[in-house]
Every structure is written in structure tokens, then in C-alpha cells.
# Entry
Amino acid sequence: MIALSIADIARAAGGTVVAPAGSQLTADSVVGGSVHTDSREVVPGAIFVAKPGEVTDGHLFAPAAVANGAALLIVEHALELPVAQIVVPDAVVALGELATDVVARVRALGRLKIVGVTGSNGKTTTKNLLRAVLERVGHTVAARESFNNEVGAPLTMLELTEQTEFLVAEMGASGVGEIARLVRMARPDIGIVLKVGLAHAGEFGGIEATVRAKTEMVTELRETDVAVLNADDPRVVGMAAQTAASVVWFGQGDTATVRASDIHVSASGTQFTLHFASGESRQVAFQVLGEHHVMNALAAAATAEILGVDPDLVVGALESVQTAERWRMQVLGGRDGITVINDAYNASPDSMTAALKTLAQIARPGQRTIAVLGEMSELGELAGEEHDRVGLLAVRLNISQLFVVGSAARRMHISTINEGSWDGESVFADTPEKAFELLKSSVKPGDTILVKSSKSAGLRFLGDRLGELFS
# Structure
């Protein structure tokens, strides 16, 4: 974080400075360390925010943060610890207010450009692709992993320094109003909306509410800003009428400003022609597995072009990225020609469909395909129907063998075995451990295995075990 006096931090966070006995710092002291809500990540000089949680309370870990060298605590009640503290009514709100202040201070220096990224799928991949491009141009801050909520997003914003030229802020939500709050913190110059699908539809209360929530990205933009929108998604197309910003379209259709053509998918990645808004085009050898990730590459390329990045640099950066993120279409294995694709960090009907289609596309003639699938969480009343559809999709794609893991995903197995016109086989395992044992004896040389589920199902660790087993 940029260096600020404790008094300035307190004003921004809406709190009161407390300097207990033994504290070496006063309100006038300057602090410029990193900001954390996890005491294990605290380093000397850092700020620790004691955030109450659903299971435990960050205040209980403040002593550990102090032991690790925290210079300042942001707390909801004063603690008997020999370190300066700022007492606030709500630690999460204070974190957001501090982030808003820091972003405004760095923006006032005149060099910072901010990009906000939202969508039901692809946020993290697009953010990582943009980081790969922009860090070749100037100092870039982008979220770690999927830091995109009311805690993760401001923590990312607080990584800004006076030298930062680009901030890529991933913005997720589980309800209406949350993206708007994050947009107001960062005030993006460019807002990207990737796709609106059924991910988290249960939490939102339906697809209509999901659309309203994602639209908040563009309704909060100003006339001088740019909305980068998916021309291939009708729900996103409708957002253009609700923004004051200018619009740049990305997609595979002719209506897109930045588009892809001549797409060819293989086990080594995706080849396509990238057409820029300027009229220039380039061939791209994209190593990230799956045709669906081409859309994320287009969003990143469109944004980079708006920011004035040279097309050759954009393509070089895109081609340098080998994996979207750990547990996202991550290719493992290799022994005896066995490939494991671990894509089990999250799952929605859209991303499950894309992953299964990729599995079918990359298989060579005569090669077996195995899908190891778990629950798609947060679908609410749509869960049963959508799990049925995934099972039937595995049949239509002629996946060789299906392993369904966990009782919450069992309907995939049932819908599959009830489908008569299929040469494949479906197996049910109630735990990842049982699935692992079954797979050990089922996998044959040359097989390609997809592991896909929501994070809560825990199959990402099963994917890791399979990758290690067949490494």
C-alpha cells in the first residue's frame, strides 16, 4: 500500500486511533506495508484487518499477526496488544473505504488506468491474460487467485503503489448491489462483461437478478469510460443501452469490433486469427486449453488495444500464458499418454458444457475420454434440471466413461444410465476417495480425463492426485 499516516488511514476507514501502552507508533506515524485479513500472510510492517467471519473471528488471530510483525491493526474493538490500532464499526466496510481512498490518491497522480472484469464465467482467466499483457507495458496490479468479493477486491486495490500504471480488478457477486459497490471503489476506466449464465443463480434468485447484478458494471461507468461487451451473449448485448460509456464489442460474429476467426482446437491449445478494431489481424497460438477461453483472450485483447498496447505485444503475451490458473483447465499427467485436465475450481452449466465439449474436441480417433464430474453448486431450484442436462450432454458427446462423484451430483449419473443410445459407461462414487480407487483400475494408456466440479465438491484435489499418479 502507499505510505499514509495512521491518522489518514483512520480518516479514510472511518475509525478512531488507539495507541495502547507499548505501541511504538502514534497517529502521526507513517505506515506503508501490505494489508491482510489472514494473519499467516502478515509480514513486518503490514496492516492486519481483524475481520469477523462466519466460522471464526479475525480478532482471535490479531496476536499472531502482531507476532508476525504487524505495524497496525484495524479492529472493531480495542485489543490489549502493544501495537497501534484503528477501531472501526465494521472492519469489512472500513477495508473498502480505505481501498477507495488509496485508489483515488494513486489515480490523482495521473498515470493509473483501471480495468474492472465481471461475468458469470471467465473472470479469473481474463484477469490473468490482461495481467500478462499489461505487465509488459508498465507496473500492473491484478487480483491473486479469485480475489473478487467485498474483501478480496479491496485487498487487491490496496496493493497499488505510486508507480502502478494498471489495476485489473476482478469483480464478482452473490447478490444485486455488490458489483456496484466494487465499481464505486475502483471507478474503472474500462468495464468488461464476459458472459451472463446460471453460475450462482440460486444465490441471486434467478437469471433475471443475475443480469441486473452484472449490468451494474456498465451502469456505473461514465461517458469518458469504455464498456467492453460480449457481442455473442444476448444478455450482455442488452447492457449497451444501459451505459453512458462508449462500447467495444468482442466475439466470434461479424458484429464484434474485436473478433476471432478460423478457430482450431487441439490438445495443445487453440489456434485462431485475432482481428483487432484497427483492422489489423494476427495469428495466435493460444496454449490455454478450450475454445471457450478464446472469448476471454478477445476481451483481454480488446481492452489492451483500448489502452494503446501494440498488437504484436498483445499476441506475444497471450501466447506466453500456458494455464488460465491452477485448477482451471490445468493439464497434468503425461505417463503412458494419459492426460488429466483438472478444471475443478468452479462449475456452472455453461462452464461444464464448455469443458465437456473441449474433452470431446481434443480426443484423437480411437482415444478414450473420461469425465469425472461433481456437483455444480449454488443453482437453487435449477440444480436438478441442470445436472440432468450435463449427464445427457455427456451421452450426446459420446464420452467414453463418466464418473459421477458425490450425492449432490447423482442425477448426472441417473440421467446418463437412463439414456439408452450410448456406448459409454457411467459409474457413481459417493466420495472422491472412492472415485480415485475406481479410476486407478479403470484408466488405460492414452486416456484423456477431465475432472470438473464446483469448488465445494473438492474434486480439484482428486484431479491433483490423478495428475500425480499419472505423471
In short: The longest strand covers residues 258-266. The chain has a mean pLDDT of 94.
